[in-house]
Amino acid sequence: MTTLTAAASTDHYADINGIKLHYLDYGSAGRRQMLCLHGGAAHAHWYDYVAASFTPDHHVRSLDLRGHGDSAWAEQHTYAWKVYSDDIHAVEEKLNLRNYVLIGHSMGGMVSLVHAATHPERIGALVIVDSVMLMPMERVDRMQAFGEKPPTTYAAREELIARYRLEGGEKPLAAPEVLQRMAFHSSKQEPGGRWRHKADRKVYANFQQIAGMPMWSKIKVPALVIRGGAHSPRFTPDVMKEIHTMAPQVQVATVTDSDHHVTLDNPHGFVEVVQKFLRGVTL
Q1: Which of 75, 128, 161, 258 is deepest in the core (most CB within 10 A)?
Q2: CA distance 245 to 60
């Protein structure tokens, strides 16, 4: 069994569009740049177990989207796809990201797709990980209803960690120590002493359906879509066929022994398919 080790990183903050955003810097300044985006209710540490494999060739950073992780919460109406993309563009300007590798998982994959379609001149290569191209409205309705409920709080951090579960997959495949680390970085103590999840539930309350498929017609850079296991319902053969009609350069890879949370379920498998893709990309 391969030992899993979380990469070392440093914490940084930037004032972006009136919001203080947090990001992790895994190092290797001066090399070609890589920015990683997590999924809904997740955080920048989702890339802790893959970042070290990319730092020999890349300067890797992972961003907490607004309302997530250690980034600030915002007004509910600003949790919108265009606003997330505007944040990424401001981060690009702040960090001088040009011709770089943009990786996004799940909701972060949709943010990456929206952004790459809006600012194609900034992206050198795009990686979309197990994202839904069109969320069914019944699921959107459930998410919005969930977002309006008061958050669950816990008397102790240990209780939150013990109850922590990943959403969006069919079965848990991440190692216990990986889940524990994600739970630790998902927890925040309130002024009264109780603990809660860091993610703002208003992200869900404001969630809107968006059609990702038409955006592929604007993607001209090298791109890779990653399926979270052979049975992933997100990038099916039919979905890929439609994507290829608009963006024939897009590659697809399946990470076996993983479910939706690919970087946590099978970090080594994720690294293998991304590195194979990037070896064929000239930035």
Answers
A1: 128
A2: 32
Task: Supply 101's token pair.
Answer: 């590798």
Give the burial string for 185-203 (b: 16+ CB within 10 Å, else e).
bbbeeeeeebbbbbbbbbb
- Residue 186 CA to residue 38 CA, distance in Å, equals 12
In order along the chain (283 residues), what is the average pLDDT of each group of 10 residues?
86 98 97 97 98 98 98 97 98 97 98 97 97 96 95 97 89 92 98 97 96 97 95 93 98 96 97 97 80
Tokens 């009609």 belong to: 245
Single pTM value for the model? 0.97
What lies within 8 Å, CB to CB, of 220 at 6+ separation is: 120, 247, 249
- Strand-pairing partners, residue 100, are 123
**Beta pairing partners, 126:** 102, 223
